[in-house]
């Protein structure tokens, strides 16, 4: 059986980062990162449309859902955005900020980010073993201070183990949820629900929005009824597709819809296609447009194709003068434009999800070290934990922060014992 001091299970964003900081913190230790994927970093390479949105200008616990905010804050504070920027700069990756606050490599190539992580891992002395799937992690009966990590290529002993196996999003990348079973076998629990998040939503066959595939509008979306007090309104681009709805606002609201739908299967999405208007202010504006047709009165507010379809749905003739439209039809149109109830039928599932909502509760680790409170010597970081960020680089910042804490703490514990 070969020996390692620290084994990191999973070499995605969190695993590589944890391994780098573990190796730096304990330079004489043997740090081995094991990943089941044939080629590493699949998710980093597809992130941000191939440009990798590494982090965001401003990150706080309010940008995340799942575990409680104070616990998330404790982790984020230990490795903040400035440190992420400095790390990548030290490894030759300058980041640029876009108007949305998202930070990307100046090369606009995710490959730059992955190469920097792999080269930092190599220069820190991390050994990467892949493709190699970890089947189980067990505590030998006669040794309460080590682990046996069983892999498809044979067992390894380790003094410390960091689980960074991700969630279940994009399973073909290697993140198939097997990390949950590894952690559960060592005493951890799971949230009652583990569901796709940052995921496109589907509409029933024949729904009129599906016929507008390709159209993007700025809108405000909200789950009705709210899933919880933490349910947020999302605002931004909404993209109509052949299956339903996508775009940043939909991805952000998706996890809230999933939780609301679980609690009440009649949950819908309320969309304001004109977020600058309330039903009252739109109605006032229409009534003020004396002599104009509805089409003319709405010009510039909505794309023509969308407006015509909205009129068809509410039985309004767009060429009809606003004053001639019966009040009930005008009210129906205003409602459809500003408080449109959209009957979501489901999500596109984990294969199309950017992240996972649910996982191992954060209160089962000590946030100062990311060490398990159920199994000493075991650390957890990244998406395997019950923390999911909104769109904009927040998922990666969670990976960097939690992995930094796990890696440095594992190294410190090792050197303290030596
Ligand atoms: C299409 C897409 C685009 C995204 N874009 C962005 C973005 O621009 N910005 C952002 O912040 N976030 C983005 N995300 C989310 C982000 O990629 C993830 O949150 C992040 O990669 C999670 O990192 P992780 O290391 O925890 O998990 P993962 O990246 O999932 O890595 C886990 C690793 O563990 C390995 N593994 C799992 N089980 C085992 C096992 N039993 N044995 C051995 N190895 C195992 C897997 O092969 C995998 O390599 C995107 C996600 C997707 C799917």
Describe the structure.
This protein has 418 residues and is α+β, with helices and mostly antiparallel strands. The protein has two domains: 2-195 and 357-417, FAD/NAD(P)-binding domain, CATH 3.50.50; 200-348, no CATH class. Helix content is 33%, strand content 22%. The protein is built from twelve helices and 23 strands. The protein has helices spanning 13-25, 42-50, 69-76, 81-90, 110-124, 178-185, 248-263, 279-288, 294-297, 304-314, 327-338, 394-417; strands at 2-9, 31-34, 55-56, 64-66, 95-97, 102-105, 127-129, 134-138, 147-151, 154-163, 195-197, 201-202, 216-224, 234-240, 244-246, 268-272, 340-342, 346-347, 355-357, 365-366, 371-372, 378-380, 387-389. The strands form six sheets. Strands 1, 2, 7, 8, 9, 10 and 22 form a seven-stranded mixed sheet that branches. A seven-stranded antiparallel sheet has the order 17-16-13-14-15-12-18. A three-stranded antiparallel sheet has the order 3-6-5. A hairpin with a 2-residue loop joins strand 9 and strand 10. The model has no long low-confidence stretch (mean pLDDT 95). The structure holds flavin-adenine dinucleotide. Residues 9-15, 34-37, 43, 46-48, 52-53, 133-134, 164-166, 169-170, 174-175, 178-179, 354-355, 382-383, 393-396, 399 line the site of flavin-adenine dinucleotide (FAD).
* Number of H/I helices: 12
Uncertain regions spanning at least 5 consecutive residues: none
Q: What small molecules accompany the polymer chains?
A: flavin-adenine dinucleotide
By CATH, the architecture of the largest domain is named 3-Layer(bba) Sandwich
Strand content: 15-25%
**Rounded mean pLDDT score:** 95
CATH class label of the largest domain: Alpha Beta
The beta-strand count equals 23
């Amino acid at each position: 059986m070969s020996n390692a001091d620290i084994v990191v299970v999973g070499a995605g964003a969190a695993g590589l980062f944890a391994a780098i900081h573990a190796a730096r913190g304990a330079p004489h230790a043997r740090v081995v990162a094991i990943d089941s994927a044939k080629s590493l970093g699949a998710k980093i390479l597809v992130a941000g449309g191939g440009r990798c949105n590494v982090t965001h200008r401003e990150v706080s616990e309010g940008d995340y859902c799942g575990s409680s905010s104070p616990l998330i804050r404790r982790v984020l504070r230990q490795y903040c955005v400035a440190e992420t920027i400095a790390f990548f700069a030290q490894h030759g990756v300058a980041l640029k900020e876009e108007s949305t606050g998202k930070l990307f490599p100046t090369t606009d190539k995710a490959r730059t980010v992955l190469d920097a992580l792999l080269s930092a891992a190599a220069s820190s002395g991390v050994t990467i073993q892949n493709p190699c799937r970890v089947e189980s992690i067990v505590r030998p009966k006669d040794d309460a201070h080590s682990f046996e990590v069983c892999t498809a290529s044979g067992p390894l002993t380790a003094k410390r183990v960091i689980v960074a196996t991700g969630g279940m999003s994009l399973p073909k990348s290697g993140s198939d949820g097997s990390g949950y079973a590894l952690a559960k076998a060592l005493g951890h629990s799971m949230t009652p629900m583990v569901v796709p998040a940052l995921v496109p939503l589907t509409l029933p066959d024949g729904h009129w929005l599906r016929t507008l595939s390709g159209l993007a509008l700025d809108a405000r979306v909200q789950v009705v009824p709210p899933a919880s007090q933490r349910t947020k309104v999302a605002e931004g681009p909404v993209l109509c597709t052949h299956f339903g709805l996508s775009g940043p606002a939909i991805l952000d609201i998706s996890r809230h819809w999933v939780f609301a739908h679980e609690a009440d299967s009649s949950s819908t999405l309320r969309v304001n296609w004109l977020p600058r208007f309330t039903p009252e202010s739109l109605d006032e504006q229409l009534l003020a447009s004396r002599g104009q047709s509805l089409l003319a009165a709405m010009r510039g507010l909505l794309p023509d194709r969308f407006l015509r379809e909205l009129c068809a749905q509410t039985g309004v003739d767009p060429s009809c003068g606003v004053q001639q439209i019966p009040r009930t039809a005008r009210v129906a149109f205003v409602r459809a434009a500003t408080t449109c109830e959209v009957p979501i039928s489901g999500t596109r599932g984990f294969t199309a999800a950017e992240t996972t909502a649910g996982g191992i509760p954060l209160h089962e680790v000590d946030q100062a070290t990311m060490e398990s409170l159920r199994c000493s010597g075991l650390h957890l970081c990244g998406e395997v934990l019950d923390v999911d960020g909104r769109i904009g680089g927040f998922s990666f910042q969670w990976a960097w922060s939690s992995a930094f804490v796990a890696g440095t703490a594992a190294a410190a514990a090792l050197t303290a014992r030596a």
